[in-house]
Amino acid sequence: MKYALLIYSPAGEVAGLDPDVTAEYMALSDHPACIAGGQLQPVQTATTIRVQGGETLTTDGPFADTKEVFGGYYVFDVDDLDAALELAARIPAARMGGSVEVRPLVER
Amino acid sequence: MLDRVFREQWARVVASLVGFLGDFERAEDAAQEAFAVAAERWPRDGVPANPVGWLVTTARNRAIDRIRRERTLAAKTRLLDRPEAVEDEVTDSLPGDIGDERLELLFTCCHPALSAEAQVALTLRTLGGLTSDEIAMAFIVTPETMKRRLSRARSKIKLAGIPFTVPEASRLPERLAAVLAVIYLIFNEGYGGRPDLAAEAISLGRVLTELMPDEAEAHALLALMRLHHARRRARFDGADLVRLADQDRGRWDADEIAAGRAGLDRAVALRGRGSYVLQAAIASLQTEPAIDWPEVATLYRELARLTRSPVVELNRAVAVAESGHPEDALTIVDALELDGYRYLHSTRAELLCRLGRPAEAADAYRRALELTQAEPELRFLRGRLAAL
Q1: Less Cβ crowding at N or C end of chain A, within 10 Å?
Q2: Global pTM?
Q3: DSSP H helical segments within B127-253, as ranges?
């Protein structure tokens, strides 16, 4: 099954990662079960759009201001939720005041 | 007679079907159909030599038929444009020997990715064989709420890929703790006055010790529940709670106490030192004719160290007081940050009373009364306050 591991960090703590921590993120990207992933630029770079009645509304900033911001993701292809949770627990953000949401992808 | 057979076999049949079909909803539906067929045929034709095998085979056949029907329908309406492997897998592996997969079932139902409420409900449904309506009644929610809760849990298991396995050794202690917590939660729900739920928890505990005979904490939890359950007939006088010291020991269930003590011995022999072992040891001491309070206090100290729970500290204080040291007990109680907890204040009141400080005791009783809703407890506290 494919799982998206969505990485949330406390607002303002995304930039300036320790080289050791960066290496941990890279190691997870290199994991054989990892099929996609990416780190997002800081939340200040976000632009949100909505289309209402055929009109596109563009606003500066993320879709919601929250204490934790979405900072990146991995997609892993593993046997089951336990395997996905184990990988999720290895993501540094999970122990550094952030959290990781694990969501299965719809299989097509 | 049939009812008893059904209750005993339900969990094994459902477990086997979940393992086979990989789908809780289909498994439960198929099991239910098979039991309905059995209810009709067994009284007429007699109970088959291997009831579980019969039920599983019948349920599997029904499930296969249903999957076929659904696929034919889907093909006809062209909703499904691509074949699935399900049918072939299903027909190729028809039952040989029916293994016992209840442990896999239990660990799946108690997976931490499910909410505690869902874990409890699903465990009672699949392992306990209670109906959704019975569980709703036990937890005082509407039948619709319980149906939704169960169906959300089944669907999460399926969509999120919660595995149907016994966790590997590295994860086992944590996952076993979750299973024990669910069983104890069910027991405690029952302890408040629904002995059927308490009995259900005991039966789950018994199954767990049979399936994991080397787990000390599993034996200890079962022992703990039995030792408490043994006093069920003496704990209430009508609707009123009766304190341990005032309970009529003639109404205690001696067989249950003996079984509880034997379970505790087994846990200790397995070198268990966990929180359920300590709690069972305390419960066992409290069924002795003369309670060894200093020993109870020592066990509570150990338990408090393990759990860091202020409620356990409060219980330790009671044991210290019973050992003849009410001043020390009051010192322990006054160090606790549990102001919103009614038993803190009722315990303080009792201690102040013993220390000959009735005015302060009365204040403490009043604070306890403010925090209490249950009528039997209110009556009890008012009685104590009036007697000062």
Answers
A1: C
A2: 0.84
A3: 132-138, 143-160, 172-191, 195-211, 216-229
Q: How close A104 gets to chain B, by Cα (Å)?
A: 6
Query: What separation, in Å, do the N-terminal and C-terminal C-alpha atoms of chain B show?
Result: 55
pLDDT digits over B142-161, tens only? 999 999 999 999 999 999 99
ipTM confidence: 0.84
Quick: pLDDT tens for B365-376.
Answer: 999 999 988 787
State whether B160 and A85 contact (CB < 8 Å). no
Distance CA B110, CA B179 (A): 5
Chain B partners within 8 Å of A79 (Cβ)? 161, 163
Pairwise CA distance, residues B133 & B135, whole Å: 5
- Say if CB B281 and CB B302 are below 8 A apart: no
In Å, how far is A107's CA from the nearest CA of chain B? 10
The Cα–Cα gap between A30 and A33 comes to: 8
A104-to-A1, A5, B90, B182 alpha-carbon distances in Å: 7, 9, 25, 26
pLDDT (tens digit per residue) in B101-149: 999 999 999 999 999 999 999 999 999 888 899 999 888 899 999 999 9
Give the amino acid at B246: D
Asked if A105 has any chain B CB less than 8 Å from its own CB, the reply is no
From the CA of B324, how many Å to the nearest CA of chain A? Answer: 47
